[in-house]
Amino acid sequence: MNSSLQDSNNLTIHVDGMDVRIVVVLKGDWPAGKLDPTEYDDASQTIRVSSDYDYISDPTGWMRHEVQHHKLIVCNFRDDEYEYPYNAVEKQAYTEQFKYLRSKGVDNWLQLMPNKAQYVKILMKYWNDAGN
Ligand SMILES: [Zn+2]
Q1: Is the pLDDT of residue 5 over 60?
Q2: Which of 4, 18, 20, 70 has the smallest number of Cβ neighbours within 10 A?
Q3: 88 and 80 in contact (C-beta within 8 Å)?
Q4: In terms of residue numbers, what domain contains 29?
């Protein structure tokens, strides 16, 4: 990923032929109780990232996950609207994230996101699909 600094907390990255807007949110302003370091805002088509996350090296693949959300919004993908994370949008976002982590040699995704243990069954399915 290439990034260009526009001001202290607004950036644009160029990835897979697209420009994607990123807003870096000071850790103290990150939503209380939100354990993931990133989120995608559909309305503004912006990735929000907590300032303590290294979004360039993207060690847990969350940027890949959010970029996939962006791609689906841009191409007007129609979600089936099952609840998180069982819906078609999250399936695609997690599959991209897991492909990325597999390519980095990660073999235990749950170690990187222990807060997702409640979804282990469906996420393990996405993880296995990402290896095929
Ligand atoms: Zn998601």
Answers
A1: no
A2: 4
A3: yes
A4: 2-130
Q: What is the pTM of this model?
A: 0.91
Question: pLDDT digits over 43-66, tens only?
Answer: 999 999 999 999 999 999 999 999
Cα–ligand 1 centroid distance for 28 (angstroms): 22
- Please tell me the distance between residue 94's alpha carbon and the centre of ligand 1 in angstroms: 7
Tell me how far the alpha carbon of residue 90 lies from the centroid of ligand 1, in angstroms.
5
Rounded Cα distance between 132 and 130, Å, is 6
What strands, in cross-sheet order, belong to the sheet with 2-5? 2-5, 10-15, 18-25, 46-50, 38-41
Structure tokens at 54: 């290294």
- Count up the domains in the chain and report the number: 1
pLDDT above 60 (res 112): yes
Q: Give distance in angstroms: CA of 92 to centre of ligand 1.
A: 9
Q: Rounded to an integer, what is the distance from CA 54 to the centroid of its chain?
A: 13
The whole-angstrom separation of Cα 129 and Cα 124 is 8
